[in-house]
Design goal:
The protein is mainly alpha-helical and 404 residues long. Helices cover 69% and strands 0% of the residues. The radius of gyration is 23 Å and the shape is globular. The relative contact order is 0.07. Keywords: Sigma factor, Transcription, Transcription regulation. This is RNA polymerase subunit sigma-24.
């Protein structure tokens, strides 16, 4: 009997959930049915794959199983208006034609979930759930809100789609620009969840990083004249270039200042910097372009000691003027510490309202440690450790705390 651990099904779930849901939504336009059918298919995989082994095409098995389950369910509910006809169409593989400019199922689903009738936060959260396959808890941490709040937000978003009869179709060309802001936010949150996983033991979820970069490339191909789409792709490429250097041989987190820059992917650095230069020539700055420029400055420095922190601080000044959020202020304070010292940075960090954000307490702890206030630093590290949900980050914070 083949041994298929639950972790194998989990890996397929992470990689293929969004694709499976997108295919089924395109086929019959019922979001709840698509999600339930895909979830049922993964439940069946947990029972069947240990007996039969992992199929040659796990994604194909999941999609076929989910599709057949959806057809069976629609036939059982044939008395409901339109359900039998829908099931017959599915069984005959008579799927609706693509419309508009988006030809990728997952990217298409991102755009349709970002319908203007939904609140901006709901658009992002729902797309993370459907396309990225993130759990409610993971999305809640990405938004820095309680899990119960996020669960209610997802329920309301689905109810809005159902009650308003929002169609699951490709947006027309004229509708694409107004959806762009939410789409970019979705793609970037998928990337950040992959680059610094909010839970689990591994620091990185490479599948989500790859999916976000793939979607970013498709966005640029779709809308090459949108500088923020180009800026987001540049930001992701420059960040992704450092992935191999972010952990040591034992899998422990390595900070940016301590990374071996010889392990950075120079091809990704070159591509990202080229895109940043293209954005600069357009002279239509936006938040993603500025963040990409910050990362390009880091990439320019052969050693951490060579980093042009004054240029980075100037870019953060521009970013904060555009997006005056506590998280941006926190990152700006890190640059202030390098230019004006930890005391000046601490004065900026202390008033920030980020009590549940573990990075806030980690930054504050580091500044206190550099000021020699080790008792306060240890307490701040303790708070950061308690709030961190990623095992690799917790281990790093514990090592830093031990140094106090």
């Amino acid at each position: 009997m083949p041994e298929v651990p639950a972790a194998a099904v989990e890996r397929v779930f992470r990689a293929e959930y969004g694709r499976a849901v997108a295919v089924l939504v395109r086929a019959f336009g019922d979001l709840d049915l698509a999600e339930e059918a895909v979830q049922d298919a993964f439940t069946r995989a947990l029972h069947r794959w240990p007996v039969d082994g992992v199929p040659p095409s796990p994604a194909g098995w999941i999609i076929t199983t989910a599709r057949n389950g959806a057809i069976d369910r629609l036939r059982r509910e044939a008395s409901r208006p339109g359900k039998y006809e829908q099931a017959a169409r599915l069984a005959a593989h008579d799927e609706p034609d693509e419309e508009g400019a988006v030809h990728d199922d997952r990217l298409r689903l991102v755009f349709t979930c970002c319908h203007p009738a939904l609140a901006p936060a709901a658009r992002v959260a729902l797309t993370l759930r459907l396309v990225g396959g993130l759990t409610t808890a993971e999305i809640a941490r990405a938004f820095l809100v309680p899990e119960s709040t996020m669960a209610q937000r997802l329920v309301r978003a689905k109810a809005k789609i159902r009650d308003a009869r929002i169609p699951y179709r490709v947006p027309y060309e004229q509708d694409l620009p107004e959806r762009l802001t939410s789409v970019l936010a979705v793609v970037y949150l998928v990337f950040t969840e992959g680059y610094a996983a909010s839970s689990g033991d591994a620091l990185v979820r490479a599948d989500l990083c790859a999916e976000a970069v793939r979607l970013g490339r498709l966005l640029v191909e779709l809308m090459p004249d949108e500088p923020e789409a180009v800026g987001l792709l540049a930001l992701m490429l420059l960040t992704e270039s450092r992935r191999d250097a972010r952990t040591d041989a034992a899998g422990r987190l390595v900070t940016l200042a301590e990374q071996d820059r010889g392990r950075w992917d120079r091809a990704l650095v070159a591509e990202g910097q080229s895109l940043v230069r293209a954005c600069l020539r357009r002279d239509r700055p936006g938040p993603y372009q500025i963040q990409a420029a910050i990362n390009a400055v880091h990439a320019d420095a052969p050693r951490a000691a060579d980093t042009d922190w004054r240029q980075i601080l100037a870019l953060y000044d521009q970013l904060q003027a555009m997006t005056p959020t506590p998280v941006v202020a926190l990152h700006r304070a890190v640059a202030v510490a390098e230019v004006a010292g930890p005391a000046a940075a601490l004065d900026l960090v202390d008033p920030l309202d980020l009590p549940r954000h573990h990075l806030y307490h980690a930054v504050r702890a580091d500044l206190l440690r550099r000021l020699g206030r080790t008792g306060e630093a240890a307490a701040a590290y303790d708070t950061a450790i308690a709030l961190a949900r990623n095992g690799s980050e917790r281990d790093h914070l514990r090592r830093m705390r031990a140094g106090c």
